[in-house]
Amino acid sequence: MENQTPHPVITDRLTKVYGSTVALAGVDLTVSRGTVYGLVGPNGAGKTTLLGILAGLRHPTSGSATVQGRRISVLPDTPAFDKWLTAREVVALSASMSSVDVPQSRIDEVLEEAGLGDATKRKVKGFSRGMLQRLGLAASVITDPDVLLLDEPAAALDPAGRREVLDLVDRLKGRSTVLFSSHILDDVQAVSDEIGILSRGELVFQGPLDRLLSEHSTTTYGIRVVSGVEDVLAALAQVPWSGTVSARGSVVSLESPDVDAVQRELVPLLASLGHPVVSIQPISESLESVFLKVTS
Question: Which among 215, 225, 261 is positioned nearest to 241, based on CA atoms?
């Protein structure tokens, strides 16, 4: 990218109020250059409002938002185009609005990458919502923008279409700074370098995904025994490193935030009880459960 600022997207105590509703409450967002930043949150959390302010389409009530770059592209969640244009004409028009000299061959390449290689000469009038989102993404990336703002870019797509769009976004790493919102956690996990979680207008977490999981997740161990489930439950309930304990059939579930203590003490404890153990299986907490925990 030509713009070498380390953080091309920054907000400082960004606040947006609609009447009595606080859509954003003092959001301090920082997006590093060349990264893919995933913005997640429940419906009504403020994601679209935040992207709208960054795109210059809405004005903040207070605070500031800065987006730096020679070329900035924005894709709304429901893109719309003149119905009489073909897909190729839409992307060519987008390319013509930039000072970048885009080869004609690149237009076809971008449409192919967006999954519209067979629809380049079709008029937009007959496009489905999913095809419109693909077309919008193609039109957004045609000029290799410094900053790309995407609002739910894969929301209307089937799993195969989502994968194509995410692959395209992933290829932009290092070339563009991408900030995209999504309610599909698997999509965010698949391509994001960092994530931000909005909840009721507040940014409750910002940072790498692995830090989110390490700070807010617990590990559950599934302990399958031949017999003595009640004895195992009673023993685990008495040790200080134990968390939530439950049983289903012959499997005892142990959820504990102290992974080191579990790894050090669990096997000796089970051995002391004298009941045959079939297996001990660690089960990592999912991103969805961590997300629900952080936003609750």
Answer: 261
By the 10 Å C-beta count (0-12 exposed, 13-18 middle, 19+ buried), 20 is classed as exposed
What secondary structure letter does DSSP report for 285? P
172-189 mean pLDDT: 88
Closest CA to 45 of 177, 197, 239, 273: 197
Rounded percentage of the chain residues whose pLDDT exceeds 90: 62
Burial class of residue 30, CB neighbours in 10 A (0-12, 13-18, 19+): middle
Q: Name which of 73, 49, 74 is nearest 63 in CA terms.
A: 49
Q: Which two tokens stand for residue 242?
A: 């134990």
Predicted pLDDT at 253: 93
pLDDT tens for residues 111-148? 998 889 999 999 999 898 889 989 999 999 998 899 99
16 in Cβ contact with 45 (< 8 Å):
no
Nearest to 63 by CA among 31, 37, 24: 24
Q: What is the DSSP letter of 286?
A: P
In the chain, alpha helices (H): 47-54, 87-96, 104-113, 129-141, 159-171, 185-191, 209-216, 229-238, 259-273, 287-295
Say which residue, 11 or 130, is predicted with more confidence: 11
